[in-house]
Amino acid sequence: MIEHLLDPLEFASVLTRLMAGSIFFIQGYDKVFKIGSKEVFTTIQPAFKKIGMPNQFTNAFTFITSWIEMLGGLLLIIGLFKYLMIYLLGIDLLIVLIGMSLIDPVMDLKLIFPRFILLLILLLLPREADVLCLDNFIF
């Protein structure tokens, strides 16, 4: 009975989008509302200062990436502007990777790599497989 609801490719697409969106949303929500931009800034500022990055840039970087993660994750969950969100979150992930590498050049990639793989899978799955994507109903 349940196998008639979604075929395996459709289920994989929806599940991957929901997982990726949830991870980014929770991470961004935590940075925006629980930890706060000031604390995130305080954590990364010394590393950026070492390479001569002005505090204004670091502060903007912190603010923008936190909001992209939260809003991008939410929009990915509901499937609105799916590919735009995948691209923005991918760029965000690259920025975070560079920033974290400045703090610790031999950092553990366990926080970055799963998010990268989920975004990559979403890009490789056929567009029509994501049957529960809000984009399909609007556009």
Distance between the termini: 30 Å
Low-confidence stretches: none
Strand content: under 5%
Taken in chain order, the helices and strands follow as HHHHHH
- Kindly state the mean pLDDT as a whole number? 90
Q: Tell me the count of domains.
A: 1
**Main sheet summary:** none
Per DSSP, the total helix count is 6
Detailed description of the structure:
The protein has 139 residues and is an all-alpha fold. It has one domain (7-138). It has 6 helices and no strands. The protein has helices spanning 8-35, 37-50, 55-78, 82-103, 113-124, 134-138. Helix 4 (82-103) runs antiparallel to helix 5. The two termini are 30 Å apart. 24% of the residues are buried. The model has no long low-confidence stretch (mean pLDDT 90).
Set down the secondary structure blueprint:
Elements: H1 8-35, H2 37-50, H3 55-78, H4 82-103, H5 113-124, H6 134-138
List keywords for this structure.
139 residues; elongated; 6 helices; mainly alpha
Compact overview of the structure:
The protein is mainly alpha-helical and 139 residues long. The chain is 76% helix and 0% strand. The mean pLDDT is 90.
